[in-house]
Design a protein that fits this description.
This protein is mostly helical. It is built from 9 helices and 2 strands; from the N terminus they run H-H-E-H-E-H-H-H-H-H-H. Helix 1 packs antiparallel against helix 9 and helix 5 packs across helix 7.
Length: about 160
């Protein structure tokens, strides 16, 4: 029994080390929930001769850069979605809300879908902010770590 507690504490310390750099984005993600994190750049007369393209908030791009380089990324996130029967934002929110340490890989898969998937379909980054997915995943990861360890200081 004591070995199990030691093991969980060690795992949570590793998870904490991985998640900590991203937690500084929690206030920004909470503040921008429900909003679009991008705007269309049209430039001077660009729309007449070309298509507009999205311009993302610099804080969001910083978050994406850090998250994409973290060990939290799971390139097999489509498998997580298939295995967990996740199809809608409501499915994702339901799983996030009920997640425990046992569903840590599902949380990683959801985060990865939006971070890595946004490289190909960049609208996913803004969608994750608007639908509150980034915030909910990071908040839940923080809560799981705090359950097994001491509370994390305010970011």
């Amino acid at each position: 029994m004591e070995r199990d507690e030691e093991y969980m504490h060690r795992i949570m310390m590793e998870n904490k080390e991985t998640v900590m750099p991203l937690l500084r984005y929690l206030p920004w993600l909470m503040q921008h929930a429900g909003e679009s994190a991008s705007s269309d750049y049209n430039g001077d007369g660009l729309a007449e001769h070309s298509i507009s393209f999205p311009v993302y908030d610099s804080t969001l791009l910083g978050f994406i850069r850090e998250a994409s380089q973290s060990p939290l990324m799971d390139k097999n996130y489509p498998y997580v979605y298939t295995r967990s029967h996740l199809k809608t934002h409501e499915d994702e929110r339901r799983v996030i809300e009920m997640a425990t340490w046992k569903e840590w890989d599902i949380l990683r898969g959801i985060l990865s879908k939006y971070v890595l998937g946004g490289r190909v379909k960049s609208v996913l980054w803004s969608e994750a902010v608007k639908e509150n997915i980034f915030y909910l995943v990071l908040k839940r990861m923080k809560e799981i770590i705090e359950f097994w360890d001491k509370p994390i200081e305010n970011i």
